[in-house]
Amino acid sequence: MTCLSGKKKMVSPKIALVSVLKDLETAPLSLAYLASFLKKNMEADVSIVDINFEDPLAEIKKIRPDIVGISSVAVVYNSARQLAKQIKAELNLPVIIGGVHVSTCPESFDETAFDVGVIGEGEETFLELIRLYAKEKKFFPTSLKKISGLIFFENGKETRTSPRQPLSPDKITIPDRSLLNKKYFEPKPSYNRLRGEIVREAGMLTSRGCPYKCVFCSTTKFWDKVRFVEANQAAQEAKELIEKFNINYIVIYDDLFAVSTKRLQEVYSALEKENLVGKAKFSCCVRANLINDETCALLKKMNVVAVNFGFESGSDQVLKYLKAGSITVEQNKKAVLLCKKYGFEVNGSFMIGSPGETKEDIEKTIELMDFLKDNGVKECWCGVTVPYPATQLWVIAKNKGLIDPKKFEWESLNPSYAWNQFFVDESITKKEFLKLYLKAKEKSFEMSIKKQSFPMKILWKLAFISPTTYFFIKKRLSQ
After folding, report:
1. Are residues 302 and 238 in the same domain?
2. pTM of the full structure
3. Residues 6 or more apart from 37 whose CB is under 8 A from it?
4. What is the tens place of the pLDDT at every residue in 350-400?
5. DSSP 208
6. CATH number of the domain that residue 110 is part of
7. How would you class 202 by CB atoms within 10 Å of its CB: exposed for 0-12, middle for 13-18, buried for 19 or more?
8. pLDDT at residue 10, rounded to an integer
9. DSSP secondary structure string, 168-196?
10. How far apart are alpha carbons 473 and 418 in whole angstroms?
């Protein structure tokens, strides 16, 4: 078999790509991207193993692959490491770790669990690894050193190869969703921006990266620089979702979709050319300093029905720090009012417990939540500020001695846990912070759920005391 370039495709080993993130709402698209890229460039036998629908180890034993690749973000890195050790102990298979976590925190790479770590975007690096394994049936350090974007150990010593350059936009493929569990595409209440509406929902990316450098964001470090998929390809992917998977609500996962009117016009024109406008609703992330009438009009023409803001704080002092001076509270307010004028459902997120944030700052955030609620904002998610690897907050946490990458409980980076108080100001006691955070959380929670029974209100408060109770509440609320 030959590829489009005329070169003969190489037959690959049997590959199992594993997602260990427990999230029934968001399909593991990163693995679908890897599978698609492999299939485009070689004869690849690829399966995706999803922890949400199967026991990973049992499924891997059933598939009997030659090689296993695991993708992991920070909060599930310990789970990924544990699974890798089980795979090596019971099946003696080579295991590759990739994803945002190992890319932004390579010093946490565990050589007892993984053979190789992929640093940065995985498509080209993973392809070269699979080609190498197909040829040599093993990962020899001398051969690994010739591949960019890797971390591995040789004779007990860590080796990192030269950085991999970001993938060129013309090489980004449409992810192979045929390998994903079909339950992701079944009709269900929307979890993202249109709470409660029964839809066939799926997500897609039209770009990689973000032009802004917020102090808390690690994905900008992972993507490195902003790249836009050709608008015609974005339209083709939307067409596949609509026609092949019967999707009628598409969540655009871009860190910032409404980056410019020029880009929006390109995407709209491509959708219109394919006669897709009006066949699916869209939601996307926007930014207050970029929202104007022209932007809103284009989003409306595209059939965008919901927009999401990263409000972060109601204090200009805190917001200036978190977003590097790029946005003010007043801009957020004006942007919300403009979006409501155009009929969009508006949602957003906040962070509580940032460095230098006082009680007065948190109260200002709660006041902003009241403003948003009074002006028709449907939901605002609220979490504790946590230090993700490679961010400025990460540096602060390391300097304070709060993090040791080799023996850290990565689950503690879940911003939903109120007891993860990495940066709470010294002027605020733990008890005071919990009280303020609970007040903010209740405000945000009330926006999304109008009526709560008295027992549920009590259980919600208990969620901030015990992790077990938290997961029980989360399960109850999703039913």
Report:
1. yes
2. 0.90
3. 123, 124, 126, 127, 171, 173
4. 999 999 999 999 999 999 999 999 999 988 899 999 999 999 999 999 998
5. E
6. 3.40.50.280
7. buried
8. 55
9. PGGGPPPP-GGGS-GGGGS-EE--SSSTT
10. 14
